[in-house]
Design a protein that fits this description.
Elements: E1 2-3, H1 7-21, E2 44-54, E3 60-69, E4 73-77, E5 80-83, E6 92-103, E7 106-112, E8 115-118, E9 123-136, E10 141-152, E11 161-165, E12 169-170, E13 175-184, E14 193-199, E15 206-208, E16 214-215, E17 231-236, E18 245-252, E19 260-266, E20 278-281, E21 286-287
Parallel strand pairs: 12-21
Antiparallel strand pairs: 1-2, 2-3, 3-4, 3-5, 4-8, 6-7, 6-9, 9-10, 11-13, 13-18, 14-17, 14-19, 15-18, 16-17, 19-20
Amino acid sequence: MPTRSTTFRALAGAALLPMALVTPACAQSTAAPVSAAPAPETPGTLCASAGTLHGSHGEQAQVSLCADTGSPRLNITAPATCRGTDAKVQYVCRTEGSWEVHRAGKSLGTGSLPGSRLYAGPGAYDISATVHVRSVPAGVDLKGAVKATVSLTAPMAKATHVVSADNTVLRRGATTTVTYTINRNSDEGDGNARLGMIGEEGSGVQIRSADHRCVNPLVGRYPSKTRLANSLDCTVTELQPGHPEKLRVKVTLGAKCSTVVSKLGYWVPQGQSMYTGAMLEGPKLSCR
């Protein structure tokens, strides 16, 4: 079951009970108030016990799987509590591994721990993980599979930006023109955004654009002028609701196939706070 503190709720209930039982003599009976809708879940982290790993000499690692709410992304972690062969030593755990998430029987993705994926909205998330737990100081070194279910109620955040492409299929030995369209749907934030595209390293893919807002990034130490052919960065500053920005890009493939993935970065309100920037997954170009 998910781990949540119940102490405050128990104390609050105990404090309110006498007040509910004592009714002034002059009070008149009234209709029962209509139950208010439950308040939206505040941002937080929800953890569930996922299993205990055992070693041959009595060492143990109790693993939890955790997911957070209040963000466009679902962040997944696997904290663990270790017990080694020396009862006098306080062990601290480090957890590595991989995870997979299912919702309503459908896989939502996999990744490395800790990791994240886009939040898919309220519901029960079945999280499974293959973990490697090691302790500091040394003494616990365990591997195994764990799983847990966490139920999240936070509403899915509305998309403030959307990136689309008019062509998502690349062909070997050819140049494909792709037009990316960036839409901003929220009045919050500003008109600045940066779209980055990158192909597979070593495949020979070349990504370029005649748009002055796009540039292939430099690689190597100064004063190197070499630019990365398989990556392109484009910056727009006049993105407004009702006024999308379009970027025309050419992708050239040789004999090898390569996918091209993209990400959009943009400012959000309270931009001076260090962690208010947001990243959005853009279209993925496949190869045939």
